[in-house]
């Protein structure tokens, strides 16, 4: 394999992409951060700050922004893909001619593609034609704002090429950000895709006035259905018991910084889906992921009642109260 030494491109200047560019620079790499809006790239280069997505966080000199994907990707041996899950295919199609032959591509998106039901690593390999061992996935309990402020966090870098994963681990390790490696790409991706849906359910229950017992039950039963799906797809159950599974689930379900939890809270307080979208102002991955995750589960005959309830609220107009009644009314059974 090619080493990950050399230029690093981070494609996407949202909060997470910007935070990881900062991590890379503070770990000693030179990171080129691509922003869809050239004005944002100019702001980052001029003020050393991304006021739109990470206000008040100074960015080191090792982060250079550009609005030109060719400038970001030319010569890059490592590419971090920080665009939303449902936009990944279109973006990667445009960028493929610019990629180096033995590039290492790292997916930061958490979702299942609508229609194809592909995981993000599958989208990348199918579009670019790169080998599966060139694609890694980074996932874990990683709230961007906390990491940008150097609060201690851990993550998982999953890749079928363990040497490539270790090279990425060295590239991203700092005193406050600790990457672990894993070869279970499927489990790492399923944990990341499904946790957003369960976080919506946790937010809905909180918005409806439910307490910590309810939240604990949702997180625990959510983990059970995520694990069922992951194992059906060939993932390891222990991956979903680790940082990329239960770790990410707990952070996303409990933090007020979580967009998915906050969106669910609005729905639980009776706000309509369109109004909640307008209030949020940013993409909420779980709203789209619940549809593709549920379809993927159905194709493997895996039961996911919490995901089904979230889907009905977000896409079929079911009220949160009625969704909770349906869940409570399910037949009793052994755990």
Automatic annotation (TrEMBL):
Gene this protein is translated from: gpsA
Annotated sn-glycerol 3-phosphate binding sites: 110, 140, 195, 248, 258-260
Active-site residues per Swiss-Prot or TrEMBL entry: 195
Positions of the Glycerol-3-phosphate dehydrogenase NAD-dependent C-terminal domain: 184-324
Alphabetical list of InterPro entries matching this protein: 6-PGluconate_DH-like_C_sf, 6PGD_dom2, G3P_DH_NAD-dep, G3P_DH_NAD-dep_C, G3P_DH_NAD-dep_N, NAD(P)-bd_dom_sf
Summary of the function given for this chain in its UniProt record: Catalyzes the reduction of the glycolytic intermediate dihydroxyacetone phosphate (DHAP) to sn-glycerol 3-phosphate (G3P), the key precursor for phospholipid synthesis.
Family that this chain belongs to: Belongs to the NAD-dependent glycerol-3-phosphate dehydrogenase family.
Keyword check for GTP-binding: no
Name of this protein: Glycerol-3-phosphate dehydrogenase [NAD(P)+]
Segments traversing the membrane: none
Species of origin: Mycolicibacillus trivialis
Record-listed E.C. numbers: 1.1.1.94
Pathway it works in: Membrane lipid metabolism; glycerophospholipid metabolism
Amino acids binding substrate: 110, 259-260
Reactions mediated catalytically: sn-glycerol 3-phosphate + NADP(+) = dihydroxyacetone phosphate + NADPH + H(+); sn-glycerol 3-phosphate + NAD(+) = dihydroxyacetone phosphate + NADH + H(+)
Pfam families, alphabetized: NAD_Gly3P_dh_C, NAD_Gly3P_dh_N
HAMAP family: NAD_Glyc3P_dehydrog
UniProt binding sites for NAD(+): 12-17, 144, 259
Listed GO MF terms: glycerol-3-phosphate dehydrogenase (NAD+) activity; glycerol-3-phosphate dehydrogenase (NADP+) activity; NAD binding
Coiled-coil region list: none
Subcellular location(s) per record: Cytoplasm
Binding-site list for NADPH: 16, 36, 53, 110, 144, 259, 283, 285
GO terms, biological process: carbohydrate metabolic process; glycerol-3-phosphate biosynthetic process; glycerol-3-phosphate catabolic process; glycerophospholipid metabolic process; phospholipid biosynthetic process
Cellular component, GO, one term: cytosol
Predominant localisation class: cytoplasm
């Amino acid at each position: 394999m090619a080493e990950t030494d050399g230029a690093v491109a981070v494609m996407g200047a949202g909060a997470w992409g910007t935070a990881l560019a900062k991590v890379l620079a503070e770990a000693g790499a030179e990171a080129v951060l691509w922003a869809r809006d050239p004005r944002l790239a100019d702001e980052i280069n001029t003020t050393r700050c991304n006021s739109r997505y990470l206000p008040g966080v100074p960015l080191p000199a090792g982060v250079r922004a550009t609005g030109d994907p060719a400038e970001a990707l030319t010569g890059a041996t490592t590419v971090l893909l920080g665009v939303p899950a449902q936009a990944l295919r279109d973006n990667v199609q445009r960028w493929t001619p610019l990629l180096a032959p033995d590039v290492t591509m790292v997916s930061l998106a958490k979702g299942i593609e609508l229609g194809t039901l592909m995981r993000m690593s599958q989208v990348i390999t199918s579009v670019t034609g790169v080998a599966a061992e060139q694609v890694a996935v980074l996932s874990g309990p990683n709230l961007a704002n906390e990491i940008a402020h150097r609060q201690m966090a851990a993550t998982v870098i999953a890749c079928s090429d363990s040497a490539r994963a270790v090279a990425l681990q060295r590239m991203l390790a700092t005193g406050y950000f600790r990457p672990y490696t894993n070869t279970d790409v499927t489990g790492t991706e399923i944990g990341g895709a499904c946790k957003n849906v369960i976080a919506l359910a946790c937010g809905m229950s909180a918005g409806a006035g439910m307490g910590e017992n309810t939240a604990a039950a949702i997180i625990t039963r959510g983990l059970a259905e995520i694990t069922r799906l992951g194992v059906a797809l060939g993932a390891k159950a222990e991956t979903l018991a680790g940082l990329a599974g239960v770790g990410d689930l707990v952070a996303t379900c409990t933090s007020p910084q979580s967009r998915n939890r906050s969106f669910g809270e609005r729905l639980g307080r009776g706000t309509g889906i369109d109004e909640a979208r307008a209030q949020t102002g940013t993409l909420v991955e779980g709203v789209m992921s619940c549809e593709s995750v549920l379809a993927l589960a159905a194709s493997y005959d895996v039961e996911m009642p919490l995901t089904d309830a979230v889907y009905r609220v977000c896409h079929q107009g079911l009220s949160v109260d009625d969704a909770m009644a349906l869940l409570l009314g399910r037949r009793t059974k052994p755990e």
